[in-house]
Task: inverse folding
């Protein structure tokens, strides 16, 4: 839950022009904080300001850039102004929150950290088709300072303009790529038990793996809109399993 006290945790997120919270990675942490009912306040950081902000707080980067050497500073990040310590990377944040708030529901139940790492790796390999739809739409929704940074880095990554990456509506290419996304998400949906809302077999409560998936599924809803044909598609795919998950996670939004 959000809170204005100076002593609550600070959650660093990335703003947009008019979408509100939009990043799938920061959504994982937003879900996690609300699930554990931990008071926090959000500070919005534009892309060019992420590295200097985290350096100022002595929050270590969680990865390196493509060269394998240069530190890469990313969000989400959490900072505790009382302990004067912070952490970045959504899974590392989940473990950190469980350690510091053991009385709250567990995000990563005992003995499941390896499962969560495997889930993240396997999930990432099945959503490549999503990025051509989502990354350009993010570019067009960011504030001016972030848009320039995001466009430059993503166009270098994909080797083309965002307008070229985005499948043109009504084309056969778009239909084919949308089908690939359905198939990829179908593999992920298949990891859930037939009658289970959440991934832990027999559990009636979410865990961090559900927030990993939920962050990327709600990303589609945010970018295209609740009433869009794209969201209606995704919410109905695979017997409506993904739509039911997002509905179940509404109380943690």
Result:
């Amino acid at each position: 839950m959000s809170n204005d006290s100076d002593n609550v945790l600070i959650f660093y997120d990335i703003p947009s022009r008019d979408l509100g919270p939009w990043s799938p990675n920061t959504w994982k942490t937003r879900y996690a904080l609300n699930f554990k009912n931990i008071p926090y306040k959000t500070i919005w950081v534009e892309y060019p300001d992420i590295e200097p902000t985290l350096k100022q707080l002595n929050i270590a980067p969680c990865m390196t850039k493509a060269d394998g050497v240069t530190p890469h500073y990313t969000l989400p990040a959490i900072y505790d102004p009382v302990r004067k310590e912070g952490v970045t990377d959504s899974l590392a944040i989940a473990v950190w929150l469980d350690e510091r708030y053991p009385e709250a529901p567990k995000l990563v139940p005992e003995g499941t950290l390896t499962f969560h790492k495997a889930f993240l790796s396997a999930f990432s390999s099945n959503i490549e088709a999503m990025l051509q739809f989502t990354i350009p739409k993010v570019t067009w929704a960011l504030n001016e300072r972030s848009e320039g940074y995001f466009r430059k880095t993503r166009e270098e990554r994909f080797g083309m303009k965002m307008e070229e990456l985005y499948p043109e509506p009504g084309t056969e290419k778009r239909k084919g790529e949308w089908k690939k996304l359905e198939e990829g998400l179908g593999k992920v949906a298949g990891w859930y038990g037939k009658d289970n809302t959440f991934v832990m077999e027999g559990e009636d409560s979410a865990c961090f793996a559900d927030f990993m998936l939920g962050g990327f599924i709600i990303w589609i809803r945010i970018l295209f809109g609740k009433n869009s044909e794209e969201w209606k598609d995704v919410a109905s795919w695979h017997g409506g399993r993904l739509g039911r998950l997002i509905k179940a996670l509404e109380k943690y939004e």
